Amino acid sequence: MDDKEARTLFPVTEKYCYMDHAAVAPISSSAAETMASFARDMAEEGRLASKKWFERIDGLRKNAAILMGTQAANIAFIKNTTSGIIIASQAIPSRPGDNVIIGAGEFPANVYPWVYSRGLEVRVAPARDGEVHADDIEALMDNRTRAVSISMVNYANGCRANMEAIGSLCSRRSVFFVVDGIQALGCIKVHPADFHCDFLSADGHKWLLGPEGAGFLYVSDKALRECKPANSGWLGVTDPFDFENLSQELKSDASRFEEGTFNVAGLVALADSVDMILAAGPEKVFDKVAKLTARLRRGLLDAGAEILSPMDPHTLAGITTFRHHLVKLDLLAKGMQRRGIIVSRRGGGLRVSPHFYNTEAEIDMVLETFRSIVDMARKAGVKSAETPGLSVLSPEEFTKIVSFEKPASGTALEAKIPTAEIISSSAAEAEADKAIAENVTIENVTIEKAAIETSSESAATSDTEAITADKSDSHASDKAEETKN
């Protein structure tokens, strides 16, 4: 699948420069049509339409296994990442006073299931330079450690954990290894058996490019032997459609963890999304993401950004989080959104997460927007992100403070100056600035709508090398402003 074909699958590209796959990804036109087709069938045929859609779900289980380098017997369907971690937390044999180790900076989906799980003590391994290390986890282990549960890729800074080292530690100490895989599956190679993983949970609405409310739980052969569902339902028994036999055993495979009726609409759309990832080639998907990420990071460093994501190549996934000392984070985010660039605030910075259908031209659009905002703030006399509102500026100076409007489809993306919000901290001042600067345009900050670009191998190599550049050692904390991780 080439870039042009990939772009045609995503109508969102006609309206936005979408760089927020670590939050909620857009679904493809094919997945959207599949959901609509299922809805039409159910409206017109009712249960008579079920057979073909359940066959599609059977195919999804097999393809999910292919994607994760395992067998269909190791795959269960879940409604979200949290539900998969809850299943693991309740299925792993334990007693009050036992403990589980999680990593610092985990998303809440990998915290609360353990905090409220049957009296387990929750220990937190520190993150050094943004990464949780196996030796710090081992230092917290004792003979009552039952599980280690971490994210394969951190949702805030994008750090990819050393799964092989942590998994080997867990295997050696006979501790269950549980993984939040939502920021990894669909972006990087995820073969749980390769790193001794026992449970890996991932919803499909991020890097898998599927809808919300449908995902996968990988369960290892060891976990299938030693762990039993805390909650069992009719779908988890050997013959779920033998309704009158109420003395059945649980299935021996991972589907024993499936309690009841599926989110069929979500799963059949996710099936389309997984088909697309497999057709594109999982390795090629990550190669493209890595290339775009390297280009982004090199440009950000050149523009004076502080990159909060770890820069070691082995930690690379699809997320880059950054900030600049001259521009407040919320105002930088507003400037991006007005340009039609969709990103999120996380981990004390602005989080950018491109996927395989994004282009180098779109990365350049992000960089040009960032440089423009920072340059205009600097020229306006801003000394730090905490500078108060600048209502003392003349109208001419206000014209140098840039915010952006979303363009009409198919038009050039032009910078405009409706307000001074990019650097003003006062709503009243912003309104006054808007009146002063209304309808002023800047001609030298115009970027044409992103075109499809195919770069040479040499460019890709140089870009990938750029991710090893040095950055300042800085740590920041940030309250969650949104509900999606």
From TrEMBL:
Biased composition (Low complexity): 453-467
Domain of life: Bacteria
Domain Aminotransferase class V span(s) in chain numbering: 18-364
Composition skew (Basic and acidic residues), residue ranges: 468-485
Region (Disordered): 453-485
Pfam families on file: Aminotran_5
SUPFAM superfamilies per UniProt: PLP-dependent transferases
Record's protein name: Aminotransferase class V domain-containing protein
Origin organism lineage: Bacteria, Candidatus Walliibacteriota
